[in-house]
């Protein structure tokens, strides 16, 4: 299964990109502990280890490609992949998430992205950019 989600966030592509790939900022923007890196090949853990993966491709401020799996994946299931595209749109950034090779049970991940990423990110950047 594959799906694409798009959202608008009041932040620059650079702010989102750097926050996604920073342990401290990723944790703050999602409200959940994370360990991430800004180097290709490095692994990451988010949401207390519920999600793991590694950085596949990094194009500063425009594109992040990561392998991705949750602890719900069976051992014999291959990783899925996320591609995050960032494009400036006035005072906002359009974030497009392409999630591919998702197991059939993964329909719930659509809502999880909104609940655990997009909504907390909107609140985080709104507060950050008011300061």
Characterization of the model:
- With 131 residues, this protein is an alpha+beta fold.
- It has a single domain, classed as 2-Layer Sandwich (Alpha-D-Glucose-1,6-Bisphosphate, Chain A, domain 4), CATH 3.30.530.
- Helices cover 29% and strands 37% of the residues.
- The chain has helices at residues 13-20, 23-30, 109-130; strands at 3-9, 34-35, 43-46, 51-59, 63-70, 80-89, 92-100.
- Strand 4 (51-59) and strand 5 (63-70) form a beta hairpin.
- Residues 10-126 form the Activator of Hsp90 ATPase homologue 1/2-like C-terminal domain.
- Belongs to the AHA1 family.
- It comes from Winogradskyella immobilis.
Give a short synopsis of this structure.
The protein has helices spanning 13-20, 23-30, 109-130; strands spanning 3-9, 34-35, 43-46, 51-59, 63-70, 80-89, 92-100.
